[in-house]
Amino acid sequence: MDKGYLPIFFFSGTGNTWWAAARLAEALAERGFSAEPLSIERVTPAQAAEAASRADVLGIGYPIYGSDAPLTMQAFLENLPVTQQPKPALVFATQAVWSGDGAFFMDRLFKSKGYSIRWAVTFNMPCNVCLDMGFLFNLFFSSLKAKPEDALPRISRLADQVAQDKPWIMGRSTLFSMGWLQRVPFRKTLSYWQSGILSVDPELCNGCGRCLRLCPAENITMDECLPHFGDQCNLCLRCFNYCPQLAVLAFGKPFNQKWFGAEPFQGPVPEFRPEQLKDRY
What domains, with CATH codes, occur in the chain? Predict the structure, then answer.
């Protein structure tokens, strides 16, 4: 039975949400939906509006940063046209540990666009944070060992709930979910995170420009073959994790192999490449 069209618009910084969106689309397809994962970096506003207008259910996926959604995803949702007919929405968020209401907190924004969140679920995925932030932070982040396949049972359950039209909302209550405990201070210090943490080691950088090509916020420019970081960082960590020379610094420090292994997080599966997420290679 054809249950309708379900586009899953997603933003993925370093691959976790890309993987989850693909697995969820497969699970939904097995249950009768015409489900399609769409990177918001690869669709034009017109294409996004057209897909959303045809959708029977709107799907949205993003990673969690401080119990908040990436700025790129927030901008995408704000620019989405108001639907002519009220529609249900499915929202999922990928996280390292916990985000409270991370998949539900933008309910008001969805309603302003004519969508009602009927499913809001979080998936624990491998931690992509491998920044040298001192002993306690390093110990915490290096200890997180979630695997992509750990999320499969919840992905399957979510697909069942959608197919049966049974709502499932995690973190509905903003007060008791406590996501605001992270989100409020994160937003108050956002300008620092956007402009104050990234730089480059000119001795290591070979001027390849991969960081510039991968940046979803166009926050990187090249000057004399060296990247320069602006103040509009999306905090996705692509430039840091996927620099071939390990030349990008965070807090003035290079990747710490002692704590995090031979190389930074390279995606949830070996075949992932961040270029897959972009509209230009």
Answer: 4-126+133-185 (3.40.50.360), 197-252 (3.30.70.20)
DSSP one-letter code for 13: S
What pLDDT, in 10s, does the model give residues 8-35? 999 999 999 999 999 999 999 999 999 9
Per-position b or e across 139-157, b if 16+ CB within 10 A of its CB = eebbeeebebeebeebbee
Query: Are 269 and 278 contacting, i.e. CB atoms less than 8 angstroms apart?
Result: no
Residues in CB range of 1: below 8 A, 6 or more apart: 32
User: Is the Cα torsion angle 60, 64, 67, 73 positive or negative in sign?
Assistant: negative
Cα separation, 104 vs 142, whole angstroms: 28
- 265 in Cβ contact with 241 (< 8 Å): yes
Determine the 3-state secondary structure of 157 from DSSP. Answer: helix
Using CA atoms, how far apart are residues 281 and 105, in angstroms rounded to an integer? 33
pLDDT (average), residues 124-142: 96
Locate 110 and state its tokens.
């969805």
What percent of the chain shows pLDDT beyond 70?
A: 98
Q: Give the list of residues 6+ apart from residue 226 with CB closer than 8 angstroms, or none.
A: 200, 202, 205, 207
Cα angle value 194/200/202 (rounded, 5°): 160
Pairing relation of β-strands 226-229 and 220-223? antiparallel
Query: Residue 143: CB partners within 8 Å, gap ≥ 6?
Result: none
Strands (E), the chain: 4-10, 33-39, 58-63, 87-95, 115-124, 168-169, 198-200, 220-223, 226-229, 248-250
